[in-house]
Fold each of these.
Amino acid sequence: MTSFEGSGADWLDSYKRYFEHDHVLVISPHKVYGPGSNDPALQLRKKGINKVILGGMSSNLCTESPLRSLIEAGFEVMVVTDATAGAIIEIYVGYAALLTNFRMIASKVDNTDNTVAAIKAAYIM
């Protein structure tokens, strides 16, 4: 198979317009928490990208680990708080804990509306 189009593993139609561009980098899924098992830093550098925006389903796994690795690799990394989720169980509020970590590690932390406005402003200039 050379394309995911129509396979059931394709992007949701409502999101395709965001992903189907030459400037969008889609990497292979990671097998551990950080990006060490795939090559995002290499792929980003090949495209001349030094700024990354992160969100993820599990903030302490899908977001924090790549955040730490990318920051250590010299990238400027922003975390979008309302595009990131975290576990909330009786004895643990993972999302709240990770917001603290994001603010201490990330280059910037903001919400979706402000992030989209900043991206639009950057493309207008």
Amino acid sequence: MKKSVPVWLLVAVTVAATLMISCEKSSQQDLPTEPVTISTEPYQKEIIDSANTFALSLFRSTLDDVKGGGNVLISPFSVSTALSMTLNGAAGRTFDDMRSTLGFGEKTLEQINDTYLKLIAEMVPVDSRVVLEIANSVWVEKQFQPKETFINTIKEYYEAEARTIDKTDPSSVKMVNDWIAQKTHDKIKDMLDELHPDIEMLLINAIYFNGKWKYTFEKSDTKDETFYVNGSNPEQVPMMHINTDLNAARIDNATIAEIPYGQGNFSMVVVLPEEGTGTADIAGTLTQSVWQNWVTILENNKHKISLSMPRFKYEYKRTLNDDLKNMGMGIAFTDLADFSNISDLPLIINRVLHQSFIENNEEGTEAAAATVVELISGMADPGSTVYSVKLDRPFLYFIRECSTGTILFAGQVNDPLSE
């Protein structure tokens, strides 16, 4: 015989469900709908601008190497964070050259460290609809004794985990790779191939980003359309579509548009060269002043936009030694390197490894990157006009935090179907 449910229980369940829905709606309504300002001191803003100068220089260097072809993705923030940790161990000319390459001018270590602590602490939680995770670590070979002040500094300012590795243990590589994979939600795997026989220390940054578009692309609007690989070779790719108000403008030889995530603290800036102009041509003239001019133009140009954008998903891996040497910090890779603030024993940078991942679809963008610095023993007006922005040929893109201006990722899509 069926037992009847008491009326009071039905009423209680109904009331509880109503309250839960009401609270959920209320909490969603309480979320910001516009970017939240992250306040910075003047010297912090200067350091962020300098880091962006480094970001654009490094991006140009990677594009030069692929001669305009192929998909590229770097996280200059990841690279500069790992190198800024390393900078704390440098002295003499090595310190000067590394600081200059990073674009920090005459800024003190305290100012540099304080700025990265600010970014790590305040960019991560600024938009609850965007997941941003930043993790740092230092791995010390068990026989090596670094100076305590160095370890304490990067633990304090970069929130770095301090761990020990054994270069004679084959499982050490897996242990490091597992840490990177965990911190990047399994998007960056098997980054290290081996530990150098003379390894003394690894300094690692990992960054993970998952942002939902502020204005979602409807999957039903996605259709196979033509994309011109290398600017001329047609192939059919899934092309997403949206019609909405976006910041966009035509500049000398390209169209730029900004697509916000969440409440707008984070955005993707896409750069589509005019026909006959390549991405390498645009990147070759991209400096901090040009970038800042683009940002200013975008802020003052909101239009109704019909945006067409391909889905894309790919990985990228690169050893940055040559890029960094060409940018001015070659001494750090030689026997003249001075890392005496880490140890009185001679150390040099053996490799700077970088690996990244991105997936861009109707819901948003998921991206991750990791950087490993390997130190080894050394010898000694809104209008009614509707603009059409169709990303149907190679284009550049940048993911940034708008309040501070920090460039998190920089990439080039040459072939949306290439993984």
Amino acid sequence: MLEVLLGKWGHEVIAVSDGTEAWAALRQKDPPRLAILDWMMPGMDGVQICREIRTLSERPYTYIVLLTGKDRKQDIVEGLEAGADEYLCKPFDHDELRARVRAGCRIVELQERVAMTLEELRVQASHDALTSLWNRSAILDILQRELARSERESSTVSVVLADVDHFKQVNDSHGHRAGDAVLREVARRMQSLIRPYDALGRYGGEEFMVVVPGTDLAGGQALAERLRAALDSEPVDSPGGPLHITVSFGVAVNKGTKAIDPLIQSADEALYRAKSRGRNCVEAGLSGVAQ
């Protein structure tokens, strides 16, 4: 009867025959967001399921209606304290149930909107608005974590700094819309060439940082050269027409230390040498190691 009623009210219904099946349905990857449970069921009872589901803090919230013949005040209190959101006694009134389900749906929708808003705020706080890459603060946090891990595991981390050549001239000659298009395309091409566990961030105005875990200096240089060639290979489309863009790179690597400043300084000095050499090239830190 419930399945027919809920279907008539426009809900997609997953019907189960006992508490064990209910618990399995509520633990699946994309579980129902609203559950109507009886207290007395074979396998697991409704109160057990309420208690268990409230321990799954990392999953989307499930709104639970306990619909049962237990109508004593202490039963109602026990059910609500176990984690139920609503408690209805049988025999139930159809209109009341429909109203309670509608209220549950509104709460679930509100929670989804709040979760989406929080995720959007999280992304905004950690990502660059123009390129969608990690922002400066986030990429430095990632580098610090990777350096700490490399110290524990006695491994290496390479840092690649990239700077768009003559970027001021692009803005001055073609406008900031063209400059924005260049930065977005540089970010896109670089992102397409790094590994899933590498991290790319916008480090400054026209400067980017790549954190490359588990890679020595030669590996960091090889990656930087692939990035340089890809950016030099074809013009960037912009509102003012195609623009030939080149990028200079500086590479440095640590060796089992979590000191972040010497590593960045080494990469920055290498980038300065690349600029001094005529740009559109890759230079490595003189020592290759940040101590």
